[in-house]
């Protein structure tokens, strides 16, 4: 009987990574990378380039992209074999914008003394960079005037009590937010 010894060289691991993909912002993305080494060597997977928020645990990605990530994201991975050698692979992820409603905030006092000058305004935030939200002040106290995102006025004794203030902001796709407040005019005893 004759035996021959066969010595295998250290071979590169095989890597199965998904094809380039598209995902929505604010949505959890989970992806796995399959790595197999014919020599049984351990392989350490690392992210060389990519968004900081990606959690790479072993060979699994977890990521919730946000507005700052919208567009094409390049992820470069390294695969380092325990007996030496390193390989790289690249994945392109297209993060799609998911339309989100604008948000409106009332900034001002909700209590004002009669005879006191009053000023308040609305602050709008739309997380979608391409949107230009439109403000519509639907209802204001009779003693106020509205211009753009600001209301001003000076209530008199006839205005004592509460009155409704309502403002709506709408984005280009029709998503909206509403703020509703009651402005209370307090009686001031005149000397």
Tell me what the structure shows.
This protein has 191 residues and is an all-beta fold. It has strands spanning 14-16, 21-24, 29-32, 34-36, 43-49, 55-57, 60-63, 71-81, 86-96, 103-107, 111-113, 118-125, 134-139, 144-147, 150-153, 161-170, 176-186. The protein is rod-shaped, with a radius of gyration of 30 Å. It starts with 13 loop residues before the first strand and ends in a 5-residue tail after the last strand.
Query: Low-confidence runs (pLDDT<50, min 5 residues)?
Result: 1-8
- What do the pLDDT scores average to? 85
- Give the overall shape: rod-shaped
Structural class: mainly beta
Q: Describe the biggest sheet?
A: 4 strands, mixed
Return the string of H and E elements: EEEEEEEEEEEEEEEEE
Distance between the termini: 123 Å
- Beta percentage is over 45%
Adjacency order of strands in the biggest sheet: 2-9-8-5
A few lines on this structure:
The protein is an all-beta fold and 191 residues long. Helices cover 0% and strands 53% of the residues. Strand 6 (55-57) and strand 7 (60-63) form a beta hairpin.
């Amino acid at each position: 009987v004759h035996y021959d010894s066969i010595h295998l060289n250290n071979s590169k691991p095989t890597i199965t990574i998904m094809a380039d993909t598209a995902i929505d912002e604010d949505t959890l993305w989970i992806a796995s990378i399959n790595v197999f080494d014919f020599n049984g060597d351990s392989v350490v997977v690392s992210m060389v380039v990519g968004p900081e928020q990606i959690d790479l645990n072993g060979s699994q990605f977890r990521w919730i992209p946000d507005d700052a990530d919208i567009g094409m994201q390049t992820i470069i991975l390294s695969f380092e074999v325990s007996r030496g050698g390193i390989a790289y692979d690249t994945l392109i992820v297209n993060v799609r914008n998911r339309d989100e409603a604008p948000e409106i905030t009332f900034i001002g006092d909700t209590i004002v003394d009669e005879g006191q000058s009053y000023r308040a305004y609305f602050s709008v935030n739309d997380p979608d960079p391409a949107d230009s939200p439109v403000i519509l002040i639907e209802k204001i106290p009779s003693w106020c005037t509205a211009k753009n995102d600001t209301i001003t006025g000076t209530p008199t004794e006839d205005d004592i009590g509460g009155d409704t203030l309502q403002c709506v902001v709408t984005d280009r796709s029709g998503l909206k937010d509403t703020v509703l407040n009651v402005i209370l005019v307090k009686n001031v005893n005149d000397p």
